[in-house]
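Hello Y.,

Per our agreement to keep a running log of every chain we model this quarter, I'm adding this entry. I've kept the format consistent with earlier entries: sequence first, then predicted structure.
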Amino acid sequence: MLNLQTAVRRAAVFLDRWHWVWLILAAPFLLFPSPSRSLALFVVPGLWVVAWLAGREPLPRTPLNGALLLLSLMVLVSLYATYSIDFSLPKVAGMVLGLGVFYAVVRVGQRPRGWWLCGLVLVTAGVGVAGLGLLGIRWIAKVGFLSPIIS
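Predicted structure for the entry above:
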């Protein structure tokens, strides 16, 4: 029995060490959900169970935990009140992904190296979104003095 517990704990520690990888792998299924892929919703709570089995705190304490609990309960209420689960599934999946990312960032950000890593990811994502915005702009309509040059 002790060997089984040790093996489960070692597996949980390994899976928990790479929690952000599992979250990234599940993100496409949560960003573009469908009823056939709705099992991906169990990845985030599964990661919390794995963290608990590994001996870590599954949900780190933050000042926002109460508000996030209330928000999660209201998602369940909205699922009860919805007329079509297909209509509500994208919002529920987004909420689950948001909770998973929030707690992953909290876990990584508890160390000084994690602060720098989270800041670097934030700046990189911001520069990427700004770059995509520059590619998508219609320069002729926005900047009038370019019309004679382009013509």
